[in-house]
Q: What sequence folds into this?
């Protein structure tokens, strides 16, 4: 049982390590293979409208392998049997010949034939979400007309492994679809003949992307270029790489906790075993066995226990790794999954686990082989207790026994407490994830925003356009906003970040500071998120340089007048009229936030599907529901197995420490039974110790859990989102209860042995 | 839990088992009968049998043993290893149960008592001293005694108990700081602090040299004399037998002889 308890803890550590390593390996290999086969581009750029001949100039930039132009356009789709408007992203396919970059991997059907009337390929998850197959039709507002498109195939693209709608937080395959269409038809519908608005590049080996990005920007500048970016900043790839980084982070923290505890447990159990076998060790040494031979004997024992754990861990880890990887496949759409766990993950995990177990027992083994044979054969000198403080005088004798033992072996008590605390900490870490995600979503979707939907125009419109929306059915209120593509800089620090213009009294989608206040947009300068201010190294009162990437492309110097804290992105705001004045575009808006009357939405939804010039409609409630549904599923499973591991941890620690206490103290406990102490009173003396340590472990574990959560939150903080450090009181409570329950279960298990204690046998043997 | 009423038992039980009564005649029955009439029975065992099954063979540790212990007497049990002395003492002390027979303590049959009732019997009425002292290493001498006085209904103070065994000035020492004899005397103090009705000592001097052994024996005699505690003492050392009121000889799970000492010798007269 004790062996099993240690083996399980080793197994947990090994399993977590194997899982993390194989997942990382699988994700990295799959990504690399997919990108390679599908010729995923290395540089991406958008412009408003560039003439096709510019492509030759782009291709002749030194170190560019080849360049491909295309037309990309956002439009609203009308899918039959789905009453909400769907955001569609149209991407042109070369009319003749294969794609140079970002090649589609067909999953069903075929590619559109050259010149065919409105044939399209849609992304597979979207087709699956709506039950669409080749031959089905749907409508889309392209240009100013509603057109019917025919699906001829479904596909996956390396560009959209993680497919999120503009402004979305998570993939929503029902409300966001990718539509690939022949270049000629798409260009004709959008009045983009002989022009392009998107270009992708691959580079020669060893090329410096920064140089090429700079040259590309210069070329696209006159055509409304909004700034080129490298593959690492491509949104889908960014999410994918950040996921891999999180896994790497996880692979360092969690297994370390488990293996450290495993080391402590082997130490504890081996120390006890060697204590009971002292005489035999002395005898063997007297017979002439070398220290090395005896040390190796015990090392083998540790290796056997750890090996059981490693084998268990390998099996569990491989299963979990595969499961984890396929879980990723739900969010990250690959046409194939390379889960080929190599020997490396297994060998690494085995080596680390065995080393941890050996390291744990090393000190004990060395101590015993150093003993001269005669000393080893004699019983160990009894432990010296101290009377310690006078405070003990108020305690009853059983409590005094507990306290004296704790004080006599403070290290062991400390490590036991730490082990149990780690179990609480792992639980807090796992459970707080739910709190943090909840808090993030509630803040973003409920506290900060009050609009029911946000409509984005494909190009800015006069401010009067807002009125048109106000009179749509079921619209209660509207609020305009303006987006301006820009690049902000301070010295050599440069960030691409659109500036959002809002009315001063914005209520539907105001600037929300996480401290719980609304910040007003200002006419005299920028209201900047702290994350952006941090990236740019600017403070309130300092000036940032702004290169506007649209219209007349002015370069401005604007002061940062206020900062605010937010979880999502790195936004920066200004009062809308002031922003318009700077842009010299007159009073224009990029879209409107609307609040709706629930009752009559169906009519509105139907109308929205018909409106031209709209690239996206985001529904706040749908986004929130999607967020919770997706996170909910994953998190419940994630928390489930972390709870299992944490329970194994506290089981390993508490069972071993109680079991060892029982074997060390059987004489003492038998004496108490002979003296007439009842089973409960004896249990108190035996189990009170672990109980006390568990009580001490709970606040400590909560603290460590908080620190781990803080570390995780800061390690995972990115420009796109920052998971708040938020641990609810109930989370501490749950973590404590789970750990306490495990300790109590172990205690009950050992308590049964106590009832079978052989009083006479124990008392008649020499100490 | 008034399983064992504290009212003194007045029933007088004459005679032992078959073996005992036959031996008795040879050993001065009259004197013994007088004593038996004067004193009430503290504990009485009837037809006790204990067998152990060790695989194929059956070992009979006690074979139809009858015995009465009288109030305040000091009985020494003598006999070779494996003759059944310890088994008998363990059964009388409520640490073990016989295969057959009964043990009567104040109208209660211990053989029919539950573990819980046996526990209370040990707690309130019995004191044990073993060859190995079995002190709690993390408690001082005084605290080891206090362990018992805290749960006993009518205890003496730990200091008084340690006084009785002559260890008053060592009461704040931990077991590891005491000699073997001192530890055994702490064990005796712990056993008698509750003012037990019965004191069972299983080779209390077995691990001690003669000088220390005599100190320990003195303590036991003093308690028997001053507190009137019924005491049964197992020993290998026939020399010790002279301090007893009665000496009971064991062999092969039976009582083979009972000797009544006309005069109890003092420890100073013992040939160790």
A:
């Amino acid at each position: 049982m004790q062996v099993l308890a240690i083996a399980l803890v080793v197994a947990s550590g090994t399993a977590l390590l194997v899982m993390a390593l194989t997942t990382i390996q699988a994700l990295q290999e799959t990504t690399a293979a997919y990108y390679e086969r599908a010729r995923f581009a290395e540089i991406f750029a958008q412009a408003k409208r560039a003439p096709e001949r510019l492509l030759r100039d782009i291709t002749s930039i030194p170190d560019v392998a080849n360049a491909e132009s295309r037309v990309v356009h956002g439009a609203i789709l009308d899918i039959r049997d789905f009453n909400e408007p769907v955001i569609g992203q149209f991407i042109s396919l070369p009319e003749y010949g294969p794609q140079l970059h970002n090649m589609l991997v067909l999953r069903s059907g075929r590619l559109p034939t050259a010149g065919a009337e409105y044939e399209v390929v849609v992304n597979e998850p979207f087709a699956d979400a709506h039950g669409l197959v080749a031959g089905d039709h749907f409508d889309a507002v392209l240009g100013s007309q509603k057109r019917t498109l025919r699906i001829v195939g479904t596909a996956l693209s390396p560009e959209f492994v993680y497919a999120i709608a503009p402004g979305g937080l998570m993939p929503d395959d029902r409300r966001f679809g990718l539509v690939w269409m022949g270049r000629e038809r798409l260009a004709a519908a959008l009045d983009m003949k002989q022009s392009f608005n998107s270009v992708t590049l691959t580079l020669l080996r060893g090329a410096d992307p920064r140089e090429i990005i700079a040259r590309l920007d210069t070329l696209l500048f006159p055509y409304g270029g909004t700034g080129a970016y490298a593959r690492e900043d491509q949104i889908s790839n960014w999410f994918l790489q950040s996921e891999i980084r999180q896994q790497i982070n996880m692979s360092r923290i969690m297994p370390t906790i488990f293996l450290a505890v495993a080391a402590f447990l082997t130490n504890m159990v081996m120390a006890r075993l060697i204590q009971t076998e002292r005489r035999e060790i002395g005898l063997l040494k007297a017979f002439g066995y070398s220290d090395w031979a005896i040390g190796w004997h015990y090392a083998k024992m540790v290796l056997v226990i750890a090996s059981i754990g490693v084998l268990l861990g390998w099996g569990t880890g491989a299963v979990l790794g595969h499961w984890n990887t396929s879980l990723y496949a739900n969010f990250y759409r690959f046409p194939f999954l390379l889960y080929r766990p190599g020997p490396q993950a297994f060998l690494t995990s085995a080596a680390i686990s065995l080393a941890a177990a050996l390291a744990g027992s090393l000190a004990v083994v060395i101590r015993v082989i150093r003993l001269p044979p005669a000393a080893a054969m004699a019983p160990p000198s009894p432990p010296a207790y101290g009377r310690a403080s006078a405070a003990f005088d108020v305690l009853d004798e059983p409590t005094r026994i507990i306290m004296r033992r704790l004080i006599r072996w403070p290290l062991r008590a400390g490590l036991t407490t730490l082990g149990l605390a780690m179990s609480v900490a792992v639980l807090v870490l796992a459970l707080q994830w739910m709190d943090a995600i909840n808090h993030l979503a509630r803040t973003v979707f409920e506290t900060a925003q009050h609009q029911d939907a946000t409509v984005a125009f494909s190009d800015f419109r006069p401010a009067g356009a807002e009125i048109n929306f106000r009179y749509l059915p079921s619209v209660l209120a509207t609020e305009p906003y303006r987006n301006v593509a820009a690049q902000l800089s301070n010295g050599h620090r440069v960030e691409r970040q659109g500036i959002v213009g809002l009315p001063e009294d914005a209520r539907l989608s105001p600037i929300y500071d996480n401290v719980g206040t609304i910040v007003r947009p200002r006419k005299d300068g920028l209201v900047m998120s702290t994350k952006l201010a941090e990236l740019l190294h600017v403070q309130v009162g300092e000036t940032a340089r702004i290169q506007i990437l649209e219209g007349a492309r002015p370069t401005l110097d604007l002061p940062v007048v206020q900062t605010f804290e937010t979880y999502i992105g790195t936004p920066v705001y200004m009062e809308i009229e002031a922003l318009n004045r700077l842009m010299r575009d007159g009073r224009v808006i990029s879209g409107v936030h609307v609040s709706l009357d629930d009752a009559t939405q169906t009519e509105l939804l139907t109308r929205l599907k018909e409106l031209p010039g709209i690239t996206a409609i985001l529904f706040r409630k749908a986004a929130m529901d999607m967020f919770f549904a997706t996170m909910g599923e994953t998190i419940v499973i994630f928390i489930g197995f972390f709870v299992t591991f944490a329970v194994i941890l506290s089981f390993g620690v508490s069972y071993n420490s109680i079991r060892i206490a029982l074997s060390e103290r059987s004489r003492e406990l038998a004496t108490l039974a002979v003296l007439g102490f009842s089973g409960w009173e004896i249990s108190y003396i035996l189990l009170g110790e672990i109980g006390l340590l568990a009580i001490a472990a709970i606040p400590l574990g909560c603290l460590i859990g908080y620190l781990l959560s803080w570390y995780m939150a800061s390690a995972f903080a990115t420009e796109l989102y920052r998971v708040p450090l938020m641990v609810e009181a109930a989370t501490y409570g749950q973590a404590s209860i789970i750990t306490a329950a495990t300790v109590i279960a172990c205690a009950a298990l050992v308590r049964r042995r106590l009832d079978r204690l052989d009083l006479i046998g124990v008392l008649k043997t020499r100490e | 839990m008034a399983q064992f009423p504290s009212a003194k038992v007045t029933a007088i039980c004459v005679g032992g088992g078959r073996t005992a009564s036959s031996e008795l005649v040879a050993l001065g029955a009259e004197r013994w009968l007088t004593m038996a009439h004067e004193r009430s029975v503290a504990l009485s065992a009837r037809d006790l049998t204990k067998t152990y099954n060790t695989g194929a063979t059956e070992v009979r540790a006690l074979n139809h043993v009858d015995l009465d212990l009288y109030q305040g007497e000091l009985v020494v049990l003598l006999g070779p290893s494996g003759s059944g002395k310890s088994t008998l003492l363990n059964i009388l002390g409520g640490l073990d149960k016989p295969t057959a027979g009964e043990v009567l303590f104040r109208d209660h049959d211990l053989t029919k008592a539950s573990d819980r009732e046996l526990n209370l019997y040990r707690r309130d009425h019995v004191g044990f001293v073993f060859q190995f002292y079995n002190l709690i290493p993390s408690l001082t001498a005084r605290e080891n005694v206090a362990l018992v006085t805290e749960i006993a209904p009518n205890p003496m103070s730990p200091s008084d108990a340690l006084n009785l065994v002559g260890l008053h000035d060592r009461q704040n020492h931990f077991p590891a700081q005491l000699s073997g004899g001192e530890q055994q005397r702490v064990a005796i103090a712990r056993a008698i602090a509750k003012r037990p009705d019965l004191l069972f000592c299983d080779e209390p001097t077995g691990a001690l040299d003669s000088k220390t052994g005599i100190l320990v024996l003195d303590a036991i005699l003093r308690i028997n004399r001053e507190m009137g505690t019924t005491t049964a003492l197992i020993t290998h050392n026939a020399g010790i037998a002279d301090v007893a009121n009665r000496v009971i000889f064991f062999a092969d799970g039976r009582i083979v002889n009972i000797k009544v000492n006309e005069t109890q010798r003092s420890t100073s007269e013992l040939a160790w």
In short: The first strand of chain A starts at residue 43 and ends at 51.
